[in-house]
Specification:
Elements (H helix, E strand, L loop, with lengths): L1 E7 L9 H15 L11 E9 L1 H12 L7 E5 L3 H7 L6 E10 H11 L3 H16 L7 H17 L10
Parallel strand pairs: 1-2, 2-4
Antiparallel strand pairs: 3-4
Pfam families: YbeY
Cofactor: Zn(2+)
Function: Single strand-specific metallo-endoribonuclease involved in late-stage 70S ribosome quality control and in maturation of the 3' terminus of the 16S rRNA.
């Protein structure tokens, strides 16, 4: 079972079903990763998602990544990826995968620039952030290609298009 602890600031309260969107996007990301077996355990996979504003994300980016600017999403894994494989045999309890925080203004601007609905862009970012929680990164070309391939596959399972194709 996947449990999403969602909190949102006022600007995110637009009538969208962010809870369901996050649940589906996290599940899709886990399903395409090598850790898909985690969803077959009796343990609860827990992810915290915070929908915030640029200022909050900016402060966290500065304090934790030494980047003095806002960004669209930050992910804070709770477990080393090496431990995740062994947790696939867990028969109960809770597995805390980590936390994600998204900046409303940046996400909205990016969605508008891509000419896509905000929920579609957020689905992509939640998939992307979940893969970070699972230990994936995009620091090298090889890592980026592998991560993008998983994102494309996860989004396709949600009926969403490849976000890396330029139209």
């Amino acid at each position: 079972m996947i449990e999403i602890d969602l909190s949102a600031q006022g600007r995110w309260d637009d009538g969208s079903d962010w809870q369901s969107l996050c649940e589906k996007a996290v599940a899709a990301a886990i399903a395409v990763a090598p850790f898909a077996r985690l969803t077959e355990t009796a343990a609860t996979l827990s992810v915290s998602v915070r929908f915030a504003d640029n200022a909050e994300v900016h402060a966290l980016n500065r304090d934790y990544r030494q980047k003095d600017k806002p960004t669209n999403i930050l992910s804070f894994p709770m477990l080393d990826a090496v431990l995740l494989e062994s947790l696939a045999n867990t028969d109960d309890g809770e597995i805390l995968l980590g936390d994600m925080i998204l900046a409303h203004e940046i996400c909205g601007t990016e969605a508008a620039e891509k000419n896509i609905p905000l929920p579609q862009h957020i689905s992509h970012l939640i998939v992307h952030g979940t893969l970070h929680l699972l230990g994936f990164d995009h620091m090298t070309d090889h890592e980026a290609e592998a991560m993008e391939a998983m994102e494309i596959k996860a989004l396709a399972s949600l009926g969403l298009p490849n976000p890396y194709i330029e139209y």
